[in-house]
């Protein structure tokens, strides 16, 4: 995977509220091509591993419980400048600070339950994509 791919998850809060279709519509309308996608459910251990980078943060336990409480949609997205452009599309971590029209402004609940994940670097996009998908599941 090179600089034209990022990894995303539609988080349990947005799935619970029935926003999968609307969020995928925003993503594809913004020019991202879906090259891998699955509906899945992180175990507590999966969530602990995926977010290990945040293990010293005060919100780690809450984050792991949230991300493993229900199903998610995981996907790899392709577009020029994917990582940066996708983080613009989703908006600030805290939806109260997110720009109008961003996915988090439209669909997030609060800073913890913020509807979507987006990789923060090309390197992490590769690691996170490989966490969820084998090479045979990427098209
Ligand atoms: P993400 O990794 O999910 O795309 O979000 P992000 O880069 O905007 O934010 P990050 O700092 O990486 O935090 C990861 C996720 O942890 C939860 N969080 N909760 N309670 C809190 O203060 C708090 N702060 C962060 C959010 O779900 C955030 O997206
Ligand atoms: Mg992050």
TrEMBL record:
InterPro entries: NDK-like_dom (IPR034907), NDK-like_dom_sf (IPR036850), Nucleoside_diP_kinase (IPR001564). Its cofactor is Mg(2+). Residues 3-139 form the Nucleoside diphosphate kinase-like domain. Keywords: ATP-binding, Cytoplasm, Kinase, Magnesium, Metal-binding, Nucleotide metabolism, Nucleotide-binding, Phosphoprotein, Transferase. SMART domains: NDK. GO terms for biological process: CTP biosynthetic process; GTP biosynthetic process; UTP biosynthetic process. ATP binds at residues 11, 59, 87, 93, 104, 114. CDD domains: NDPk_I. It is found in: Cytoplasm. Homotetramer. This is Nucleoside diphosphate kinase. It comes from Aureicoccus marinus.
């Amino acid at each position: 995977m090179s600089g034209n791919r990022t990894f995303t998850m539609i988080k349990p809060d947005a799935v619970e509220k029935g926003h999968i279709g609307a969020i995928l519509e925003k993503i594809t309308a913004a020019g991202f091509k879906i090259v891998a996608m699955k509906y899945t459910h992180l175990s507590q251990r999966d969530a602990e591993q995926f977010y290990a980078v945040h293990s010293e943060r005060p919100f780690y336990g809450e984050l792991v419980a949230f991300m493993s409480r229900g199903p998610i949609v995981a996907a790899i997205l392709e577009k020029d400048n994917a990582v940066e452009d996708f983080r613009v599309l989703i908006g600030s971590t805290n939806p109260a600070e997110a720009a109008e029209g961003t996915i988090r402004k439209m669909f997030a609940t609060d800073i913890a339950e913020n509807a979507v994940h987006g990789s923060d670097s090309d390197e992490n996009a590769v690691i996170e994509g490989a966490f969820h998908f084998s090479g045979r599941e990427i098209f």
